[in-house]
Amino acid sequence: MEETTMKKRLLSILMVLCLAVSLVTPVVAVGEEPIEEPVAAIGETPYATLDAAINAANETAEVETIRLLADCTLSPMWGTLENPIVIDGGENKYTINSDVAFGLHSWHQSVTFRNCVVNFYASNETSTNYGAINLGSGAKLTFDNTEATFDGTNFSGNANGIYFWNATTSMDVINGSVLTIKDFPVNAMLWEAGDGYRLKIEDSTYVSNHNRSGFTGTFNVTITRSNVDVINSTGNASNGSNFEIKDSTVNFNDNKDHGLSAGTLLIDHSTVTATGNGANGIHTNSTLTIQNDSVVTIKDNDCSISSQWTIPGALYVGAGESVIKDSIVTIQNNSGSGIYQKAASASLTIEDSATVTVTNNTAVKAAVSTSMAMPALRITWFSTITTPALLVMISMLPMVGKSSLALLETAGI
Fold first, then answer.
1. pLDDT for the residue numbered 74
2. What is the pLDDT at residue 285?
3. Under 8 Å between Cβ of 98 and 125
4. Strand 178-182 relative to strand 241-246: parallel, antiparallel, unpaired?
5. Which residues contact 128 (CB under 8 A, 6 or more apart)?
6. Would you say 111 and 142 are in contact if contact means Cβ atoms under 8 Å apart?
7. pLDDT recorded at residue 82
């Protein structure tokens, strides 16, 4: 009797142990390997690779959030993103490494990297002739509290860091992000053509170092409470985007050709430096506004002529009605006119609240072709040049054609 009871007890214990084991052992379909260390998850579903998670997200039209569970890699995915995704590294800010050709090519697609460290290494084997990342029609790329580095050191082809295919594309660098694009043989960012491309840098940092250009094309760029450095470019640091710079620190230094080259340019309560560039320091094709306690420094620029479009002027002001007020502007030691305004019908108003210092600049008359002419410069002073609040130091050289300001025609002095 006792022996029978003991056997029953042992059988009961064995059954309990079997049940316990079954509860902790994952159910795996026939032919499947268990995921021992998943690197990503959508909801409660784990994935062994980030690629697998993105492929799963493609199966739904909803915006899927992929949670990173560990550091991982991303394979080249040219043209495979079909739905919006968010990749979130969480509190650990996991790292994603990728040899990229990462294509976004259809309407309404968007990719957000949030709380990540992302390293894109462009290589000849994986990158396209357009960009390490390509933004197609309607695509939006967002870096949110993310450190993203695009490295073109090992790439020798005709590729850019980020390529914007269509005017409906956009990019946000926000919430403490740091975007670094370096050593690309072509551009850090390039647009296809036309207007409407939007780039927002807010509470973040953008560095373009040793690319041909930091901004190429006509972007609408807003820089707010951010730091931007475009340095060591092998061409123009920018060439025609419209910039709104507010509450920020921006440096366009040591570039081979133009420094900050813009369509329209607004500098509001910001510090902007353009020094050591091969051509003009700041060059605007349209209106320039410097206001609200801004500090602008334009020094040591060569103001060289590389084509018929690069008329030398440390501060080159294009068409429209431009104004400097409530700010400090220093233009010194440039090898060109201190201030050069192209359009005879345009005006530059320096208000009584501004301090503008223009000294030791050498403007040498030069031309690329006989068709190049030196149009009249019009500068309108808000008050007379002797107003105490307005300090404009003009060092005139005795030789015709050399002066800090290319004063061919003035009004109000």
1. 87
2. 92
3. no
4. unpaired
5. 78, 101, 103, 134, 159
6. yes
7. 76
3-state secondary structure of 4: helix
Residue 218 makes CB contacts below 8 A (sequence gap 6+) with 191, 194, 195, 197, 240, 241, 242, 263
H or E stretch at 381: strand 380-381
**Tokens 């400090």 correspond to what residue?**
328
Q: Tell me the HSE value of 20 on the side-chain side, using a 13 A CA sphere.
A: 6
Q: Round to whole Å and give the CA distance between 14 and 12.
A: 5
Contact 217, 197 (CB under 8 A): yes
Let me know how many helices (H) and strands (E) the chain has, helices first. 2, 34
Annotate 73-128 with three-state secondary structure.
Answer: EECCCCCCCCCCEEEECHHHCCEEEECCCEEECCCCCEEEEECCEEEEECCCCCCC
Categorise residue 6: left if φ over 0, alpha if ψ from -120 to 50, beta otherwise. alpha
34: helix, strand or coil: coil
Cβ distance 223 to 244 under 8 Å? yes
Closest CA to 130 of 181, 191, 182, 178: 191
Distance, CA of 387 to CA of 405 (rounded, Å): 19
Spans of the chain, pLDDT less than 50 = 10, 16-31, 366-413
Dihedral sign for Cα 343, 221, 140, 101, please: positive
pTM over 0.70: yes
Cα–Cα distances (Å) from 100 to 20, 232, 412, in that order, read: 45, 24, 58
Say what the pLDDT of residue 124 is.
67
Render pLDDT for 323-369 as a digit per residue (tens, 0 to 9). 999 999 999 999 988 998 877 788 899 999 999 999 999 876 543 33
Among 132, 127, 134, 129, CA closest to 105: 134
Q: What pLDDT, in 10s, does the model give residues 3-36?
A: 555 555 545 555 544 444 444 444 444 445 556 7
Strands 271-275 and 249-253: parallel
d(CA 229, CA 146): 18
pLDDT at residue 371, rounded to an integer: 30
Q: Strand 380-381 to strand 347-350: parallel, antiparallel, or no bridges (unpaired)? A: parallel
* Residues 199 and 220 sit within 8 Å (Cβ to Cβ): yes
**Amino acid 412: pLDDT:** 29
Task: Supply 40's token pair.
Answer: 């990503």
